Amino acid sequence: MHQDPSDSPVDSPAPAHRTTTVERGSFCLARCACGWSGPARRARDRARADAREHLGEPEQDG
Asked: Is 41 helix (H, G, I), strand (E, B) or coil?
């Protein structure tokens, strides 16, 4: 039986890392398109720092 190469499974590239912050009640957390989710934080700044850390960006001085 012949298999068309276009039908074979292909390793797809990892999803792009796009982060966002989500608020749940009084907590804020960072999420990424790759499925990663940071811990719930009371401070939005800390959730944003979690997102930057996930992306491998250096921390910004306040």
From this structure: strand
First to last CA, the chain: 64
CA geometry: angle 53, 34, 31, nearest 5 deg: 55
Return the HEC string of 12-37.
CCCCCCCEEEEEECCEEEEEECCCCE
- 47: amino acid identity, one letter: A
pLDDT tens per residue across all 62 residues of the chain: 444 444 544 555 556 889 999 999 999 999 999 999 999 999 999 999 999 999 998 767 65
As given in the structure block, the two tokens for residue 32 are 């990424």
d(CA 35, CA 29): 13
